[in-house]
Amino acid sequence: MTSLPSVAVVILNWNGQSYLKKFLPSVLASDYENLKIIVADNGSTDDSIFFLQQYFPSVKVLINEDNEGFAKGYNTALKSVTADYYVILNSDVAVEKNWIAPIILLMETDEKIAACQPKILSYKNKKSFEYAGASGGWIDVLGYPFNRGRVFEYCETDEGQYNTATEIFWASGAALFIRASVFNNLGGFDEYFFAHQEEIDLCWRIKRSGYKIYVEPTSIVYHLGGGTLPMGDPKKVYLNFRNNLVMLYKNLPFFELLWKIPLRILLDIVAAFQSLPQGKFSTFDSIGHAHLSFFKWIFLGKRGANIQKIRMKKLTGVYKGSIVWQFFIRKKKTFSEIVDINK
Question: Which pTM value belongs to this model?
Answer without folding.
Answer: 0.95
